[in-house]
């Protein structure tokens, strides 16, 4: 698509992905329902089953809950939200740096174009498998904090390889271990925070703060990457 509309090819990647996100966001107004009893795509039997499971899990989202400003203040005053922000910050900061330096490492190995793009896939594929495995273990053991601690040691080992070696092949191997230490913590931390917050709207506010703060810390990861490059 290079040259179409007077824009370079890389710009169209962001334009098309952004448009797709906007379209799905608009569609979610009708497709995503606030409460199970409003979900038109469920049969009456399925709707009753979902509500029963939520009640068994002691989730207030099983019933209608009106929004009130007090839920915002309850979230702000809950220390678990601030702890969640700090934990998620530690997950997201290396995530952004990882995404940035992986292409540079592959380029240092002598690969370019399509082959370089393909070689960027395996670390993410391994991380996806690790995320599913850690999620399963965390759900079964109910030890999300301990799971975070264990996989974080993998992240430390992977980033140590990236810092200690100038060999691009060693660095590439380090990205596999680093990815295993980063990505499982992302979903596990969000689930952990969500499990410890009761109330639909309070939980929404807390997750907004946690995820928003974590994403803002990606700026630090980018700055550190640029500084290393200079």
TrEMBL record:
GO molecular function, one term: transmembrane transporter activity
Entry keyword set: Membrane, Transmembrane, Transmembrane helix, Transport
Pfam families according to UniProt: MFS_1 (PF07690)
One cellular component term from this protein's GO annotations in UniProt: membrane
Annotated membrane topology: Multi-pass membrane protein
Residue ranges of the TM segments: 12-32, 79-101, 121-138, 145-164, 170-193
Gene3D superfamilies in the record: MFS general substrate transporter like domains (1.20.1250.20)
Compartments it resides in: Membrane
The keyword Transport is annotated on this UniProt entry: yes
InterPro entries recorded: MFS (IPR011701), MFS_trans_sf (IPR036259)
UniProt main location, coarse: membrane
PANTHER family: PERMEASE-RELATED, TRANSPORTER, PUTATIVE (AFU_ORTHOLOGUE AFUA_1G01812)-RELATED
Protein name: Putative Uncharacterized transporter
């Amino acid at each position: 698509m290079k040259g179409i509309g007077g824009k370079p090819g890389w710009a169209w990647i962001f334009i098309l992905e952004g448009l797709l996100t906007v379209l799905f966001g608009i569609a979610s107004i009708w497709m995503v329902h606030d409460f199970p009893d409003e979900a038109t795509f469920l049969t009456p039997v399925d709707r009753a089953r979902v509500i029963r499971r939520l009640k068994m899990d002691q989730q207030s989202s099983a019933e209608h809950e009106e929004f009130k400003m007090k839920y915002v203040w309850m979230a702000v005053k809950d220390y678990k939200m601030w702890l969640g922000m700090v934990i998620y910050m530690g997950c997201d900061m290396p995530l952004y740096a990882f995404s940035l330096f992986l292409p540079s490492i592959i380029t240092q190995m002598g690969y370019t174009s399509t082959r370089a793009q393909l070689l960027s896939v395996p670390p993410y594929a391994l991380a996806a498998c690790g995320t599913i495995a850690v999620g399963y273990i965390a759900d079964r053991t109910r030890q999300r904090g301990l799971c975070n601690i264990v996989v974080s040691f993998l992240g430390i080992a992977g980033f140590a390889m990236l810092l200690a070696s100038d060999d691009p092949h060693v660095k590439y191997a380090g990205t596999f271990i680093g990815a295993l230490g980063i990505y499982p913590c992302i979903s596990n931390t969000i689930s952990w925070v969500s499990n410890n917050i009761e109330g639909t709207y309070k939980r929404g506010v807390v997750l907004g703060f946690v995820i928003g703060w974590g994403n803002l810390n990606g700026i630090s990861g980018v700055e550190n990457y640029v500084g290393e490059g200079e």
